[in-house]
């Protein structure tokens, strides 16, 4: 019998979410439960059966992976995957948290020495990826702060900060003239 373990996972409202099940082979019998209620099951070679509220908004794969489409706040909870076949059996527990998507980032600017420093802030509770673009300069900087020597600033340009998390991308833009 495989050991039982629990993993905290999270998804974003409106996105599709797949539980990170790492079973490489096809499994004969699969049962998924949420807060002890069955939500999906597959018995042998029969097609999967889905229960409320996952009918029409989930997909169960032969290796036990369960995907929920268009995640809702009410999908948060404790999930259990029970699986069995002649070579393998076990139980994997997940605690799914469903978060609101990140809001647009806020950009502020300041002068530090000979540089204009732009800072991109996100109120999202998890780490996000930051990408900066300067008007026609598609060079991307993967940091929260972006520093430009004041002598190189073209006041007609704009800076855009993109934040990404999972499948969600938000951006904000600032005109450099506002900062000088």
From TrEMBL:
InterPro entries: CD2/SLAM_rcpt, Ig-like_dom_sf, Ig-like_fold
Protein keywords: Glycoprotein, Membrane, Signal
Keyword Endoplasmic reticulum: no
Localization: Membrane
Chief place where the protein resides: membrane
Origin: domain of life: Eukaryota
CC annotations in GO: membrane
Protein's name according to its UniProt entry: LFA3 protein
Organism taxonomic ancestry: Eukaryota, Metazoa, Chordata, Craniata, Vertebrata
Gene for this chain: Cd58
